[in-house]
Amino acid sequence: MKDVQSQPDFRNIPIDKVGIKNLRYPITVRDRREGSQNTIALINMFVDLPHNNKGTHMSRFVELLHLLRPEVSLQNFSAILENMKQHLKAASAHLEMTFPYFIEKNAPVSLSPGLMDYNCSIIGTSDASGKVDLVSEVVVPISSVCPCSLEISECGAHNQRGEVRLSTRFKKFIWMEDMIELVEASASCDVFSVLKRADEKYVTESAFAHPRFVEDIVRDVAEKLNADDNITWFSVSAENFESIHNHSAYASITSK
Length: 256
Description:
The protein is 26% helix and 42% strand. Strands 1, 2, 3, 4, 5, 6, 7, 8, 9 and 10 form a 10-stranded mixed beta sheet that branches. The model has no long low-confidence stretch (mean pLDDT 91). With 256 residues, the chain is α+β, with helices and mostly antiparallel strands. It has a single domain (11-254), classed as Roll (Urate Oxidase). Strand 5 and strand 6 (132-145) form a beta hairpin. The protein contains 6 helices and 10 strands; from the N terminus they run ββαβαβββαβαβααββ.
């Protein structure tokens, strides 16, 4: 049959990224406690396209995933990128996998167990020279109490759930759990899936004892990452879903 994608194109315009987006696919990811866990990823896969090629072979992206049945870790991500380049005869490749990652987390007083899900991503690019760039990202729900509201109010303060997004580049492997714990330690209090009455008392009082603006949260995270020699780059943002405003509060820091 005629291969239309392989025919020449005469407009002399290369394409930076061409491929597939929003493919749901089962993957296995590394788990610090259990060794591994199965989850479902939302996957974007792209390669470059030379100026003289009409198109890429979209079905080969899915075919490659089926062949690899990937166990996703930072260690084997570069191998997947190289397979993409070879499989699609491309000079560069880009891969994004976003997936829910589950951690068993005990309530702070009753120690009742529950599963917390965190939205995590691994993003990788391999360029024409073979240089691989990897970014690990976590999105962490947190709780925050407003320091200003606490200072000026005679009783209580407004508090809300928020979300911190942390992306890092690194020299050696870093666990998703380590990134999540670093963020949770910078909030007024972390979030739990199961809370008994004693736990609810604890998290309420703990949050009010540690009021935080979004500015405080991103600065606390940045301070810890700046002191970590393993981290070569980071971007952190905090968004509070305000309980007394019809807008969010937001702050972000990106390292140089």
